[in-house]
Design a protein that fits this description.
Elements lengths: L13 E10 L8 E11 L4 E5 L6 H8 L7 E6 L2 E2 L5 H10 L1 E4 L11 H12 L3 H14 L15 H14 L4 E5 L7 H16 L3 E6 L2 H4 L4 E6 L2 E5 L30 H18 L1 H39 L3 E6 L13 H8 L4 E16 L2 E10 L3 H4 L4 E4 L4 H5 L4 E4 L1 H7 L10 E4 L2 E9 L3 H4 L7 E5 H9 L6 E6 L5 H16 L4 E5 H44 L1 H9 L4 H36 L8 H27 L3 H6 L2
Parallel strand pairs: 3-8, 3-9, 6-7, 7-8, 13-18, 15-17
Antiparallel strand pairs: 1-2, 1-4, 4-5, 9-10, 11-19, 11-20, 12-13, 12-16, 12-19, 14-17, 15-18, 16-17
Helix pairs in contact: 3-4, 3-5, 4-5, 5-6, 8-9, 8-19, 9-17, 9-19, 9-20, 17-19, 17-20, 19-20
This protein binds adenosine-5'-diphosphate (ADP) and magnesium ion.
The site of magnesium ion has 4 residues, from helix 1.
Length: 660
């Protein structure tokens, strides 16, 4: 590639053959041919100015040269390779590795610092972080911006911004610098400085192509090509031999795709994407937090609703075991129950007790009676029952003991008090065992006090009763020996339903009509638990819907973000971002929003649950529900972020760049 080797086999760096570019022509708009057959060659190391009046097609030409746009017709050979044969990723590679763009409007990313802007191309090229920082710092220092590394674009003057963009163009080597009106927005002094800088680069061996409408600016270049109405009208031709090798080492020969797969490591890419995403979120924090609110509420409500549902269910189950889940109840029903002697008789119970499915048959006779101790009278629920009651109903005795089967047979006048009744009737006696009380004026001896039952069973009235042997109650208190109701325990291993059917069969055979009712506590409790489950499901559904609404919020914000940041997307593509880089960036943002929202939701959900626990509501947190809600939120972000992200990635670099 020396000046003497003009006729050598090495193809020119850039060769345009009859290049044409048309706009419009579809949907009614008349077609405009902006470039009308441009042919020229540019060798490596040249310093070329392309001049022409405004509207002559210079920028269009530069977009084609920089592979930001495709020609309508004609051929563009870069280092001998037809650019039309390259796919989107290969073009991105070319933009990243071969070209460095300098725009009239600088095109810096507003949310990033000078140094970060310079580093953008290196991120897409996969340069390790330490090298990246060192190189960007060195470049900025060389361009006199060593003390402006952390400034954002709006904190820099026009000349400084243009120098940042030149540093960015050099970040990956900048073999070919494409500058479109680089001095157009600058005062004459800054403009001269920028031109001097480009000249220096040309001296160092970079190929520099400057586009300008200003002949004075063009005069700095070694070759001037004039373009008018989309055609080359003058070309001063090559002046002198190409200069010394580039300062960043010799330009790499050929534009092959050798480094195509040397992408940045996934971890670095993700870290960078997260960092950028976080910054965008932070800059738009008000809007972001409003979006987050949807997800936060969604996740928090899923967690709280399920925790309350689970807690309530647990309580119901606890009640079930407090009652004894294997209990059957039978009582008299209908007109016959009003006649003296109830429809269900002790003889019935004897027959039922023969059933192999039943373990215990416990007749009960109940009613309200006045109980007296000393001066104190209390209307009390009195229950005559069997000696097996504490075992059958899972209800232990706290003080003293329970009556025995002998007490029942002997009609012993003994009573066991409920926890609360003991407290109310004998407030001055912490241990009432041995005291005498009167029930309907019949003296009884207190032999025990039951443990507290109401808390577990969910019914405080349990602790307000008086228990005595069934036979004693029938004879001495109620004057009738037929049971009010009967409790039966199903033998372990036998089905409650089957036992219920068997009892019914025996009873129906004896009575001929169903003047009795059989029920089981388990069924009632199961029904209640089912209601709770349905309730939980319903609440969970509402919560899920709010999560969905949160996801739609994310999508909305992401769509807005894409629209707002179209130019940034263009800049990233011009500096070599591939479609998947853009896709990843926007997806990362969406997921980050959702993860932050999800985490906040988990924290708030736990806090609300804590408050509910303090307020006495049964709450059980489930790790599965928490993890599920969190994952759902993240997935929502991913799903709803995908469409905007894909839209961003699908943009054409030129279209994106020219958006405002
Ligand atoms: P210059 O940079 O020399 O001022 P441009 O290359 O920007 O000129 O534009 C050349 C012509 O092409 C102008 O007349 C402009 O209106 C037209 N043009 C540029 N871009 C488009 C486009 N996307 N759609 C239609 N016409 C366009
Ligand atoms: Mg222009």
């Amino acid at each position: 590639m020396s000046g003497a080797g003009e006729a050598a086999a090495a193809p020119p760096l850039i060769a345009l053959e009859n290049l044409r570019k048309r706009y419009g022509g579809r949907g009614g708009a008349p077609a405009v041919e902006v470039l009308r057959g441009v042919s020229l060659t540019i060798e490596a190391g040249e310093f070329v100015a392309i001049v022409g009046a405004s509207g002559s097609g210079k920028s269009t030409l530069m977009h084609l040269l920089g592979c930001l746009d495709r020609p309508s017709d004609g051929r563009y050979l870069f280092a001998g390779q037809d650019v039309a044969t390259l796919d989107a990723d290969a073009l991105a590679w070319l933009r990243r590795e071969a070209f460095g763009f300098v725009f009239q409007g600088y095109h810096l990313i507003a949310t990033e610092s000078a140094q970060e802007n310079v580093e953008v191309p290196a991120i897409y090229a996969g340069l390790p972080e330490a090298e990246r920082h060192a190189r960007s710092r060195a470049l900025l220092e060389r361009l006199g911006l060593g003390d402006r590394l952390d400034h954002r674009p709006h904190q820099l003057s026009g000349g400084q911004q243009q120098r940042v963009s030149i540093a960015r163009a050099l970040m990956n080597g900048g073999r070919v610098i494409l500058a479109d009106e680089p001095t157009g927005a600058l005062d004459s002094r800054s403009g001269a400085e920028v031109m001097a800088l480009l000249e220096e680069l040309a001296d160092a061996g970079h190929t520099v192509i400057v586009i300008t409408h200003d002949r004075e600016v063009a005069a700095a270049a070694r070759r001037v090509i004039e373009i008018r109405d989309g055609q080359v009208v003058a070309d001063s031709g090559r002046a002198g031999p190409p200069a010394a090798p580039a300062m960043d080492g010799p330009p790499r020969a050929g534009a092959g795709r050798g480094r195509e797969h040397q992408g940045p490591s996934l971890a670095t890419e993700l870290a960078d994407a997260c960092r950028a995403a976080w910054r965008v979120m932070w800059i738009n924090r008000f809007r972001t937090s409003l979006t987050l609110l949807g997800i936060v509420i969604g996740v928090a409500s899923v967690i709280v609703m399920l925790a309350v549902g689970l807690g309530t269910r647990q309580q119901v189950v606890a009640q079930a075991s407090a009652f004894g889940a294997n209990l059957l109840y039978m009582s008299s029903v209908g007109a016959s129950s009003r006649i003296p002697g109830r429809s269900v008789t002790l003889a019935d119970l004897q027959a039922v007790a023969e059933l192999p499915q039943l373990a215990e048959v416990l007749p009960n006779v109940t009613g309200n009676k006045v109980v007296r101790f000393g001066e104190k009278d209390l209307q009390t629920y009195v229950r005559g029952t069997g000696a097996a009651m504490p075992e059958v109903q899972n209800w232990p005795v706290r003080l003293g003991g329970f009556f025995s089967a002998e007490d029942d047979r002997d009609l012993a006048a003994v009573a066991v008090l409920g926890h609360k009744l003991a407290r109310d009737l004998l407030p001055d006696h912490p241990n009432p065992v041995g005291r005498r009380i009167l029930i309907e004026n019949v003296p009884f001896q207190v032999i025990g006090v039951m443990a507290e039952k109401g808390a577990a069973a969910g019914d405080q009235s349990y602790d307000d009763l008086l228990l005595m042997p069934f036979a004693t109650a029938g004879v001495k208190v109620f004057g009738q020996r037929e049971p009010t109701y009967t409790a039966m325990t199903v033998r372990e291993g036998a089905s409650v339903d089957a036992a219920e059917k068997a009892v019914d069969a025996v009873m129906f055979e004896r009575h001929g009509i169903r003047d009795y009712r059989i029920g089981n506590a388990a069924a009632a409790i199961a029904a209640k638990a089912k209601t709770e489950d349905t309730m939980t499901l319903l609440l969970g559904l509402i919560a899920a819907v709010s999560l969905l609404v949160g996801g739609i919020g994310v999508m909305n914000v992401m769509l807005m973000t894409v629209r707002e940041r179209t130019r940034e997307i263009g800049i990233r593509m011009a500096t070599g971002a591939r479609r998947k880089d853009i896709l990843r960036q926007f997806l990362t943002e969406a997921v980050l929003v959702s993860v932050v929202g999800g985490s906040a939701g988990v924290v708030i959900g736990l806090a609300v649950g804590g408050v509910l626990i303090a307020a006495g509501v049964p709450v059980i947190f489930s790790l599965r529900a928490i993890a599920g809600a969190f994952l759902c939120a993240t997935a929502t972000g991913l799903v709803f972020g995908f469409m905007p992200a894909r839209q961003a990635a699908g943009l054409d670099p030129v279209v994106a760049l020219s958006s405002e």
